[in-house]
Amino acid sequence: MTGVKKIFHKILGQSVSWVGECPWTDTLCFGGEDGKLVFSPGSFGIEDEAKTNVFPLATDAINAVAFADNLFALSSRNEVVIGRRQAQNGGGLDVYSHDFSGGAHGVVASQTGAFLAPLGDQGLLLLKLDHCRVDAQTGSRQDSPFNFYKLIRLGTAPQGEEVFASAGRGDGLLAFPFSKEAVSVSGTHHSFEAHDIVDVCPLNDPHYPLAVACLSRSRAVFLIRDVLEDQTPFALNYGGIQGTSYTLLSAQGHLFLLTDRELVTLPNVASRFLRGESLAGPLEIACVPVNVSEAFLRRDQAILLIEEDSSVAQLEIEDLIEATASAHRQAGLEWNGRPHQESSSGATDEVKPVDNVAPEVKMVEIVPIESGWHRNDPFNLILIPAA
Q1: What is the CA radius of gyration of the chain?
Q2: What are φ and ψ of residue 214, in 5° steps?
Q3: Tens digits of per-residue pLDDT, 82-138?
C-alpha cells in the first residue's frame, strides 16, 4: 500500500495554535499559544529574521488569522486584532484600536476588505477600516440569539453580494449575503434537530459557489448545493469512523473529516454529490491516526495538522487519495481517482525528516440517519456600534 508522506514544519521555541498561508509571502505563518503571530523565515525580505518575523499581538492563543490585501485580522478568546502591513518589505505591522472588547471563535476576510468574526451567542462582529479608523459593529438576533461558531466565506450570490455561512452548533447552519455598506444582515436558517453542527466548509467548486458540507458532533455530514435556497440536504453517516468530530475540509472534490482519533479521507464524495451521482453503497476510505484538535487546508493541495510537539505536519492530498487508489488496485478493482504525482512542499522551516505513515484503508457502509432538517423563516441581524 502507498504510504502518506508527512512533511514537518516548525518555528523553534513557538507553541503553535494556528497555521495558514500568508498571501503576502506565499509561505506559512503561525499563530502562537502566547498570542504571537510568526511568519516563516525569510518573510518580508528582512535580514534580521528573529526580530522582524515575530509579532506579539494577542494575550491568548491565536485561533484564526485572515488577510485582505494589505490588511490583516486575528482572533483569540480574549480579543480581535485588526491592522495593516507596513510598506512592502518594511517588515512591520501597524495595529489599530477599536471599540469591541472580547474574543471570537475565528475571523474571516471579505473581498471588500471588511472582517467578520463569530462571537458565539453574541452574534457577529464586523470590522471595517477607513483611513486608520476602525468601525466596529455587532449583529445579533434580538428575540433568540444564534450561536455563531465557525464562519466561512463562500462565493457570490446572484445579486452580487458575498455569501457567508456559519456552523451554529445546536442552532444548525446559518447563511447570509453580506455587503460592506449593510446596516442589517438577513439570512437563511437551516435547522437540524438533535444534531450539533460544529463545522462547515465550502465545496470549492466554481460551478456551485454556494455549496457547502456541514458536520455534526456525531460525525454526520450534510451536503447542500446552495445554502440560500430551500434545498433538502443530503445526509451521510458512514459507519466505522471513530471519535468525536472536530473539522471538515473539502478539496479537489474530496472530503476530509478530522475527529479526536483520526483524519478520514472520503474520496470524490463532494464531486459526486455535485454531479448528481448516487452516494449510496459502500465507500473506500483512508484513516490516518492522529492526536490533534484542528486541521487546516493549504491551498487546494495539502492538509496541515498541529501535532503535540507544536510541529505542523503537512499531508499531501494526492498521497491521501493515492492510498485508497492503491488499495483498489491491489484488490483488482477499477479506480477513477486522480493519479499520484510527486510534489515538493517548498518548506523553508522543515525541522524533521520526512515521515511516512500507512493509513488504514477500509470499506464503510452508510448508516441511516434522520437529519431533522427544516428551513426556518429568514433571520435578521441589526448591526449596531460595538461597545
Answers
A1: 21
A2: -120, 155
A3: 999 987 655 689 999 999 999 999 999 999 899 999 999 999 999 999 888 999 999
pLDDT tens for 182-233 read 778 899 999 999 899 999 999 999 999 999 999 999 999 999 999 999 999 9
Q: Residue 358: which H helix or E strand, with range?
A: none
CATH (residue range 15-281+373-385): 2.130.10.10
User: 10 Å Cβ neighbour count for 187?
Assistant: 21
C-alpha pair distances (Å), 114 with each of 134, 138, 267: 10, 13, 35
Find the distance separating the first CA and the last CA of the chain, reported in whole Å.
57
C-alpha cell at 299: 491551498
pTM, rounded to two decimals:
0.90
| Secondary structure tally for the chain: helices H, strands E | 3, 32
CA torsion 24→303→58→14, rounded to 10°? -100
DSSP 162-184: EEEEEE-BTT-EEEEEE-TT-SE
